[in-house]
Protein: FAD dependent oxidoreductase domain-containing protein
Organism: Anopheles farauti
Amino acid sequence: MNICVVGAGVVGLSTALELQRELRNANVTVLADRFEQDTCSDVAAGLFRPGTSFSGPTEEITRKWISDAYEHWNELRKTEHSAQAGVCQLSGYIFSSRDPAIVRNHYIEKVLPMYRAATEQELRICPGDWKYGSFFTTILTECRLYQPWATERFLDNGGQIVTVALNDLRELHGKYDVIVNCTGLGAKRLCNDHKLVPIRGQVIKVRAPWVKMAFYADFDTYIIPGFQGVTLGGCRNFDSYNTEASRHDSAAIRERCEALLPSLKGAPVVRESVGLRPHRDPVRVEIELLPTSNGKLRIVHNYGHGGYGVTTAPGTAKHAVKLVQEALKTNSKL
């Protein structure tokens, strides 16, 4: 059987690898017009901390996606591939002077090995009038390392990668048994999906090897050390298509992060990056039988993860592959 994954970001690559794992006889092809450093995934800091706004079709499914994803990343962390794949364990704090709910996360408090309230002493680790805090231990996935590693693994498993820009998923009719749509924000045009909205994010990567801990604070402030520098963020501009770095956002990010961790002052900039997070409520993971002039095209959608694509990709990939198996059982003459 021939299966095609459209999209080569972290969701597409995770789904392609899961297809190879579960459907050993399938020929899996990844089609995309952007790869690795040209994808939105490359901008992500990659810390496993799905927001409480992340939503699948039901609470039960959402929680399963998250626990499956954490288990996947944690198992990869324990292997000899972890360093090459850019996966490691990382601890951090989240502080707030505004609301105790900001430092809680009902999705991951029971999933992570450690998620507890910060002590009075810990609330004084960083400058600021912090009233509430949590300490947690989680997983980091550096996509600038993970995506090339996943691509190489996919090819080693016999997969094929084709560079193409699609205007319509119907172009693939008759070529593949099932199409898996992992096009992120591209699905807005390909599927005419008005629920899909870009949420613009901007980050600064700096060289600060002395930072070993992640920190989150009010106003979308975060400091996340990775394999190739420390990510400073951030911003969330709803319905913005601006992919250019803004000097105003840069100044605000540095000001907030340096106030939280003054040792960052003067840390040299490695690069600044902008990404448009593909936000959809709920995330779309479902089967569609798309009518064409020659019958129906079997599609499994897997997109709309917003800022949590890296975090949840392995979980939604598992769900998507089960749907592919269901789609293959439908009448082959569709």
Notes: The first strand starts at residue 2 and ends at 6. DSSP finds seven helices and 14 strands in the chain.
